Amino acid sequence: MLDMTILSFLAAPFVASLVIAGIHAYLGVHVVERGVIFVDLSLAQIAAFGATIAILLPMSGGDPHGPAVYWISLLFTFIGAAIFATIRSRRARIPQEAIIGISYAVASAATILAMSKSTSEGEHLKDMLVGNILAVSWEEVWHTAALYAVIGAFHFVFRKKFLAISLDPEAVERSGVSLRLWDFLFYASFGFVVTRSVSIAGVLLVFCYLIVPSVGAMLFSARLGPRLAIGWSMGTVVSALGVWLSLQLDLPTGATIVCTFGLVLILMGMVRMLIPGRLNGDIHQVDFHDVAHGGH
Questions:
Q1: Do the Cβ atoms of 47 and 76 come closer than 8 Å?
Q2: For a tag site, which of 117, 137, 226, 236 has the least CB within 10 Å?
Q3: pLDDT tens profile 251-264
Q4: Residue 53: CB partners within 8 Å, gap ≥ 6?
């Protein structure tokens, strides 16, 4: 049995994981429907590169959790968001996913080059990849929850537009809505979430929270509501199980949660194979006339 001291120690990391799972399970639906699976990984790595540059600057004082690091990291993320929004709005021959992959590779290499000038490059790289969610404080948890609540409210108010540009961007353009503008707003709000999440949980864990719950939910439902419910439930269960396993087996928490996500997804796939029939319905029916005339 776990004593109260251990439970108290694990409370903040567990709540932080639930907060991250809540917003990422929703954003993951958009990312999967857009077919830009690695956009989170790319934006997260761009944010990590920005953080690395900030740490090397005198203004940060070498503190990886200082405000200067966060804002510079966020600035880099906005630059990435602007690039991704621009390339999607143009019917170019180069797939958007190719640019996203190239951005990830370049940001990763640039991060390694920047860290080569740091005396603690190994530990910094490890923190960016798998994070150190056990070290999260309650203050960070509440600040993160408040930020994600604002982003969630923004997406709820404009949910029809965001769903429309994710499901059928060509129809949105034909309706007269600025695809480039709304794409940038999506990626910019996404950037706020990614920048904050990476500083807490690391690149790999943030990627898993975004993609795995959405993919797991797609195995059982094609509709938005059930997919969100399944994704949130999966994120909650995996978070609790991953934190518990990391404690019991004395393993790094972030990496343990990532591997737990993989195992649970495999189990869900096996269960789905035992269920006959195909999925019916559509994720969401969007009224593009309503979207074009400012409807939320």
A1: yes
A2: 117
A3: 888 888 889 999 99
A4: 72, 76, 114
Burial per residue of 139-148, b for 16 or more beta-carbon CB atoms within 10 angstroms, e otherwise: ebbeebbebb
Q: Which candidate, 183, 188, 178, places its Cα nearest to that of 151?
A: 188
Provide φ and ψ at 64, rounded to 5°. Answer: -70, -15
Instruction: Provide the CA 67 distance to its chain's centre, in angstroms.
Output: 21
Quick one: tokens of 63?
């503190």
Q: Distance between CA 205 and CA 3 in Å, rounded? A: 27
Does the structure show a pLDDT above 90 at 266? yes
Give, in order, the Cα–Cα distances in Å from 44 to each of 119, 120, 131, 167: 23, 20, 12, 23
Lowest mean pLDDT among 9-13, 94-98, 213-217: 94-98
Domains of the chain: residue spans and CATH: 4-292 (1.10.3470.10)
Give the per-residue pLDDT at 142.
92
Residue 118: band (very low, low, confident or very high) from pLDDT cuts 50, 70, 90? low
Contact between residue 211 and residue 28 where contact means Cβ atoms under 8 Å apart: yes
Q: How far is Cα 214 from Cα 73, in angstroms, rounded to an integer?
A: 26
Write the secondary structure of 131-143 as one string of H (helix), E (strand) and C (coil): CCHHHCCHHHHHH
Residues in the chain: 296
Dist CA 222 CA 201 (whole Å): 29
**Token pair of 124 as six digits:** 């910094």
Write out the DSSP string of 89-132. Answer: HS--SS-HHHHHHHHHHHHHHHHHHHHTTSTTHHHHHHHHHH--
State the average pLDDT over residues 217-234.
86
Query: Average pLDDT, stretch 240-251?
Result: 85
Q: What is the pLDDT of residues 22-38, one digit of tens each?
A: 899 888 888 888 777 77
